[in-house]
Amino acid sequence: MTPTPSRAVQLLQSLLHLGPLLVLAACGGNGSSSSSSTSSSGSSSGDSTATVPGAPTLYATSVADRKATLGFTSPTDTGGATVSSFEATCAASSSDTHTVTGSASPITVDGLTNATSYDCTVKAVNSLGSGDASVSKSLAPTATPDTTDTTKLPLGDNLMVTAAPASTARGYLYSCSTPDSSQPGTTNKGPWFNSDGTTWNLGTKLPYAVEGAESWASSFATSIVSSLRSITFNGVPSHGTGQFPITSATSPMASQYDTNGNKIVAASTTWTGLKTSPTVNSTPTCLGKGAIGVFLTGARLFAAMDAKGRDARAWEVTDACEGHPAPGNNYHYHSMPTCGLAADTASQHSALIGYVADGFGLYGKQGDNGKILTNADLDECHGHTDIAVPQYHYHATEQFPYTVGCYRGTPITSHN
Ligand SMILES: [Zn+2]
Ligand SMILES: [Zn+2]
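Above: query sequence and zinc ion SMILES. Below: predicted holo structure tokens.
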């Protein structure tokens, strides 16, 4: 218990001018052990208990041409002083480091080099300085947005699975039923099926759309009570449709490949009990035949399989809006309708276009910064979280399974 070690520490601290820093390092910023060190150092510091803030949480990044956008949440530990700004930094090397200061999430860091790997972090700043960096995320900006070649869309017939897909699987549809070739459906392959046997051509199929100009009195409304959403709709779309049943007189081209004899009928329906904050389940749930969601157009979303268990968008003939009626006369789509929805805005995340039966939202084809999404950007159920929409959500894409690959949440019991 001699005073010698204590004096040695004090000498070291004053020689290195590190007194306050050592205090911070020793007590982790919470001030619990500062009284024994500050009393004898003789420096002018130590009269404030505030420190720099804790590390923000960097939860999402997105890339665009020569830039990256970082989405983050503020640290709960402000250091005892108001967090006034944030520093977002992306570094490829010491000479290729870019820092942008902003007042809130998200922050876009520009001036980056495309196809170069950067490690990006965010720090919170208060009156005492900048705090610890967040855990870093790696990214590479890209000049050309990902697009899908619609002349060679993957045919989904062999992409149906009847067991929950692995978390790393992409582009599958988890069906509750095994394929059944005895079910009704066309067997006549249209010229839009490519000769490679594994792809099909959307543009070649378009002229075979069901013709006509029927119009409908559509209704669609949602309401929320106690965090549960109800959707009341009448199943007919807010846009015009082709004329159904398909006949050779009204649709000579379509009728060569599809003789859908159903018609479109309005019937008021209410879905209830959709959670506004659904749980993201670790194990997905399979999709059944029939409705799995409702679009804001007032008509239903079906999964991307026909009655036989094949790629419905490739095999079934629809009208120009990509809809048609099912047995029971419900008009529905197996992909994103090309009518009745607000157009996407360049450089922005798509708007909500519908609700899925597990309560999660369905959005259009654009992710953060307007990036055209592909299956590679989404999880095994065809959804994700991002900066613009932090809650889990599904996206429509041009690629199979087009909208939803499996339920990420738990679907409501009744969604016909
Ligand atoms: Zn269908
Ligand atoms: Zn998104």
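The chain has a mean pLDDT of 87.
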